[in-house]
Amino acid sequence: MANRIVHFDIEVPNPEKVIDFYTNVFHWSFQKFENWDSDYWLIRTGSSDDAGIDGGLGTSDDGKSKTTNTIEVTDVDEYVEKIHANGGKNVIPKHAIPGVGYLAYCEDPQGYLFGIFQENSEAK
Question: Where is the VOC domain (predicted)?
Fold first, then answer.
């Protein structure tokens, strides 16, 4: 595993108002993610044969627009420890995305927010 960015999240105050924008401008496609408690859409940015990553679109908790990148890791708990040992912090604890894996959000020593993700189809 290369610890690469594998997903991005766009958070905006009203996600439904930007779906047409990204569809019309960039030809991205959106599919509602039903395994989530809130409004969330998976974004396909292109063909799986093309370079790049896909992402998601959701509602911003604080009403501000932002993008958060998620890095795939082998073990979320292990990486949270590494992040703490190197001056970062865990701001949203590890939680399951049912049938997909585990996700936590952290900040680097300068306050940049990022996600760490561990794939696990048995996550509940």
Answer: 4-119
